[in-house]
Design goal:
Elements (H helix, E strand, L loop, with lengths): L1 H28 L30 H24 L1 H4 L1 H23 L7
Helix pairs in contact: 2-4
Length: 119
């Protein structure tokens, strides 16, 4: 028990002393660039962030984000299924094929309707 506490305290001490040293080294050893374009605020590809709040905003940013979240959350359903496939059996395999078919159909619909085009 005391060996693990000793090891943990050494690791914490090394991290507490090593991280600030590394941060200071990157400040001195890193590249320095005082470019005007580099220091401009950029959020999501939009250069002017200090516009009037009543100006229009492109809905494509939100639409692509929502589509990404929908298809990304589906991975959360597929990962546990893949881990337990042997125990779940053939019925779960067929269910996942139906699920994947619905996902691919949704992706085809999104692509055909032009929701992913920026022009």
């Amino acid at each position: 028990m005391t060996d693990s506490i000793f090891l943990a305290s050494i690791m914490i001490f090394v991290l507490v002393t090593l991280l600030p040293i590394l941060f200071h080294l990157t400040k001195y050893l890193g590249s320095k660039s005082d470019n005007v374009r580099k220091n401009e605020p950029v959020e999501g590809g939009i250069r002017l962030t200090h516009k009037d709040s009543f100006d229009g905003f492109n809905v494509k940013f939100f639409l692509v984000g929502i589509i990404f979240l929908i298809f990304d959350v589906e991975i959360l359903f597929m990962f546990p299924w893949g881990l337990n496939l042997r125990e779940l059996g053939l019925f779960a395999l067929l269910e996942m094929f139906v699920f994947m078919t619905l996902l691919i159909g949704g992706l085809v619909y999104v692509y055909k309707s032009g929701m992913l085009k920026w022009t």
